[in-house]
Amino acid sequence: MKRLLIKLSIISIVVFSIVLFYEVYLSYVPTSYSFKKSLLEARLKSTEVLILGNSKSFFGINPSYLSSNALNLANVSQTLYYDEQITLKYIDQLPKLKRIIIPISYTSLGEQLFDGKENWRDYFYLKYWNIEFPELPRYNIKRFSLLYLFTPITSLKLLLKDKRTSMIENIDTNGYFYVDTLGNSYAISDKLGRERVAGHDADYKELRVASIMRDLESFTKQVTQRGVKIIFITIPTYDTYNKYINRLRFDRDIEYIKQLSQKYNGCSYTNYSNDHRFVKSDFKDNDHLNFIGAKKFTEIINRELLCVDTLKNLRSTMQ
């Protein structure tokens, strides 16, 4: 019995030491969340344009091609809730902020991370941005353990420096994620587009729509009261995606955004989802631009939205 207790004690010490090692090690591993937070905090005094949104803007808007000092704070699967909370957390520390670009995608007005298979991302926002989704359970182990949050397999890959597991590889210092064109011909098809839309339909919860709309209007009011303009846009997606969406639902959501933009001074909405200037070689897959498409799209935003707005402001000050 004594030997058994000694063996169990040794095993417990070893397991505890391994877990402790990983917890300490993972606390130093940069993630897209910690990296973007550090970028924002380093540029608080100089940022003029914030780019928010999910992977569509993360991959599809490159601040290098904007004439203003811009920072891309988009992230994979980032919802409007986190767009709003990140902005409101820092807006009073951004003295030069003039515009916020907020993409509205097919699922924006009906999606919360908490409801889907990527709900683990809620804990990354809690850990690195200190932003907590109100419905998160108080005693989930992901709140307290990085090893469980990253998962043991990913943690081991990070320790072994598996480049495929890099959390910030291909992210520029302006927040843009570089996506190559390699393999896009295999990633774009009617079959994959239909499957992608089906997945997004599953993420969209009609019961969430009213509260998301209410929060977005409150956010819009708070931002515009500070003299900051909001540019709502819908980013280009390829025909193999567009043909399968629920057009009635999306048109309803877009109509709400149009009404919101008209209600608050300084807001605008432009829909580029079916823009025929974009061809297959501009896309990574059915609903994401690659670096070629991102350059083209960002230059369009700069020319058609930012520069035009700047010219209007200049004319108004001269009158």
What does this 3D model show about the protein?
The structure is a single chain. The longest helix is centred in the last third of the chain and has 28 residues, at 291-318. A hairpin with a 2-residue loop joins β6 (283-285) and β7. The chain has 319 residues and is of the alpha/beta class. The protein has a five-stranded parallel sheet. It contains 13 helices and seven strands. The protein is globular.
Question: What is this structure's SSE topology?
Answer:
Layout lengths: L1 H25 L5 H11 L6 E3 L3 H6 L9 E3 L7 H11 L8 E5 L17 H9 L16 H5 L1 H8 L24 H4 L2 H14 L5 H17 L3 E6 L4 H4 L4 H17 L3 E5 L11 E3 L2 E2 L1 H28 L1
Parallel strand pairs: 1-2, 1-3, 3-4, 4-5
Antiparallel strand pairs: 6-7
Q: What distance lies between the first and last C-alpha atoms, to the nearest angstrom?
A: 92 Å
- Low-confidence segments: 314-319
Mean pLDDT, nearest integer? Answer: 92
Query: What is the strand arrangement across the widest sheet?
Result: 2-1-3-4-5
> What is the share of helical residues?
40-55%
Q: Would you count the extended β strands for me?
A: 7
Proportion of strand residues: 5-15%
